[in-house]
Structures are given as C-alpha cells and as structure tokens.
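stuck on this one:
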Amino acid sequence: MRREADYVIVGAGAAGCVLAARLTEDPTVSVVVLEAGGMDSSPLIGIPGANVVTGVDPKLNWNYQSEPEPELGGRSIYWSQGKVLGGGSSVNGMMYVRGKRRDFDGWGVDGWRWADVLPLFKRSETNERGETDIHGGSGPLQVAKGASTAPVCDLFLQSAESFGYPLTDDLNAEATETFGHVDMSIGKGRRSSASSAFLRPALRRPNLTVVVNAQATRVLIENGRAVGIEYLQGGRREAVRATREVVLAGGAVNSPHLLMVSGIGPADHLRGHGIGVVADLPSVGENLQNHPMYRVLHATTKPVTAYSHLSPRGLLAAGWQYALGRRGVLSRGLFPTSGFLYADEGRPETEVQISIAPALVIRRRPGLIGTLPQEHGFTVLFNHGSPFSRGKVRLKSADPLAHAAIFPNYYSDSRDIGILARGAQKLRDMLRQGPMAGVLGREIQPKGPISSISDIEADIRATTSTHYHPGGTCRLGHDAVSVVDPALRVRGVEGLRVADASVMPVMVNGNTYATALMIGEKAADLIRAA
C-alpha cells in the first residue's frame, strides 16, 4: 500500500473516478483513491435491467435515512447513495441528462458557464450519434439513446405530442418542454459507470492506487494545510499523505460530513460536538438540495407494457436473451422515455422532469420478486428540477463513522409542492387525451378521488420519496461565504479541494450523473493548471 502520493482522492464515485483517471494520464503524477465501499464486481451491476435490485442493495449503498420531515407528516426518507467503486454511477438508473444552459449560466461563476462546461461534457462521452456540436465521439463514457421496452412508451410520446409538446431525438439539445427517449449511460448492453469507463482502464497504471473498504475518518491538517487522510480499513487505522493536494469527492452527504469531523465547518456546531475548529466555514453542509420524487401509477386495459417480460417466466427468458447476446429488456434502462414541461406556462423555474417506466414499480417487499408487477400498467416519475427548498447536513456526533444528520426540508418552500402538483395535473390531463386514453385503466396513484390541486398536494405529502440527486452542501462561488472558490479550493485551508455534486450552487434541471462527471473533468483541468 502506497503511504504517500501527490494527490489523495476521497471517494471513487462519478467525479472521483474521472479525476483519478485524468490526473494519472501524466505518468509523473501519483494518485491514491480511497473508497469506503467495495469492488464493483457483482455481475448485476453491469446489467442495466438489474438496476431495480442494485439500486437499493444495502451492500452497495450507504443506506441513509433523512431526519423526520415536517412537511411529510414526520416521515423519514430513504436515500440511496452508492457505496462501491463507481459510487452512484454503479447503482443509478443510467439516465444521462446534463441539465440546461440556463442552469450553468445561472450559477454565475466564472469558468463554470455553459460555454465553459460543454467541452467537458463532450470530452467525457462517446455518444452513439457520433461527434456533434453538443456531443462527444471519443470519450470513455458510452452513451446511447434509450429504447422503448414496450408500446406504452411510444403511446406516451404520441399523447405528449397530441397535447402540444414537440418530440425530440435528443433531450440534451437546447429545446425546452420536449419529450423523447432519454440518453442512457449504456454501451453494448452494459452499464457504463464511472468505474468501468474511467477508473478500471486506468488501474493498470503504476502511478494509480485504489484502496477499497477504506473509510476516511479525518483530513490531516498541519499548519493550515491539508497533508493527508486518516482512514479505517479492516478495523485498522491507517493514513496516507498527499504531497500536493487532498480532494474530497464523497458526494453531498459525505464531503461536508468529513469536513466537519475534521474541524472545518460552522464553528458553534463543531464546538457543540467537542471538535476543535480549524476553519470556521458556516456554509459547510448548508444549501442542501435534492429532487423530491412523486409517482403517478396507472393500470392499462391492454397488454402494452413490459408485464410479460417481468413475470418470473419472462425474466428467465430475458436472462437467456441477455446472456446470449446482451439484448432484450435487461439490456435497457427501466425509464427509457422522459420529458420536460412547465407547470406554469412560460416560467422555466417551474419545469418538471417526467420519466415513464413501462411497468408498475411498486416495492411490496425487499428483493426482485417483491418488486415484480402483478398486472399491466406503467409508472411515471416526477421531480421539480429547480426546487426552492433548502436543507442541510449536520453531525450527529464527533464519531466519523456515524452517519450524518440529513435534513432535506422538502416543501419547506411552499412553491415546490404547488409546482409538482400542477405538473402532475398536466400529466393526468395529457394521459386522458390522445393514444394513451385508449389503454388507460384505473388510476392507482394518486389514491382516492382527486377533484382539486389540493388533493394532489395531499397525496404528494403522503407519498413523496427522493430521486437520489443530492447536491449543494459545499457550494461553489465567488463570495466569501461559499465553501469552495471557483477553482474548487476549500476556503481557509490550503491544499484541499472538493469535487463532486456538493459544489453545485443550484441543482441542475435533470439527473445529476452527467454533471458529476463534468465536475470531475473540470477538477482535473483546474489541478493540472495550478
């Protein structure tokens, strides 16, 4: 085990894998990556259709639970966050959605506007469309357009078009309020994770060391400078020193948590847990954002869904089909079709992302069998892309192994639930027009008679979960109260950066995987230029 390297990276998630791979392209630069989880060796990780199992597998997850949520009747919400090589990219739904130009321009941070980050998105991907003005053709990540796994997906798109929404071949293009098949991080029937695309090909380099099952417990700081990481592995306390820099890439929960247990954060909060203050940064752990998720579920009157593929017999056949040629339902993502609409006409801040699965996704009990549908139907997921509500991450104790206290504060800003409810009502109206109307069966969710927006809001409060897209807790910015500066350097501590979704000042309007990869690319450029 290498005891010293130029750079020590904490977390082999999306950004961490990219950063490690890019930095070690220079054979004179040495990197150690510490990952709290294990190897991504489970064969299920690489099978796109197995995401319904891997996404909530406790062996691959941090298994976080939020604190009780006041606006959700005191419910605690489960947060799936990947704890394995690749992080969330090894267990997510593989939807490759970058967000909008206005998201990045709206950050107002020099070097992070759309014109600055688009080349980084392109550099990271090989899109099946080939090289274009907005897509890359020679990057490590494989990206393919989603494909319908059942006729209901195409009927859904036809209904959206009949309702006035244009269809697009590329949801990552500039158009707004469009529907289509979403890009997926899938190549040749296999999940393209940050680990498989970036880290694994780099492992043969002698200047890269990856240590798994190694949970970081403290940033080592000497004379105001980060000089290494203390970690636990197999019950033993170890340390690795960084001769140049330490980079935290543990995500929106773990990065602020590690900063705080290391004495970097709100001084009063740290002292309250008996932690000596190294740097008083009140914004550490603040500004937590996440996409709250709401579901609409419908039975269908005709066999237009993936139900037959998802019966025990159908899965057996699908398994053979996949094993023989990486084809069929298991070679595709669960939510291949998506779109965006404004809950309020002409107001981009009310944009809602909608994704459809051609099956009823209802987890009746743990495991695959407990998730298989019992009848023909479909599931539509909603999230408000730019929520106004803000939460926070705090310490429960000074113990670095204790989970952080997560306060999402969903719907603490009442605008959020109204936007989600009005978007859901638009969808319900859309489903009752056009081709979908001919196959629509009973409405399973929202539950009970729905006669008003307030009825939908009540159902949202009762059933909200999360889209697993946390960010914002180590906010990037020019202002002195931001946690990191535009070069991702932690304020008040030399030799320490953060590079993960926690640095996003405001959430992007879409899934966060693509943006996390971009942040890893940007971090590599910033470090190499230093």
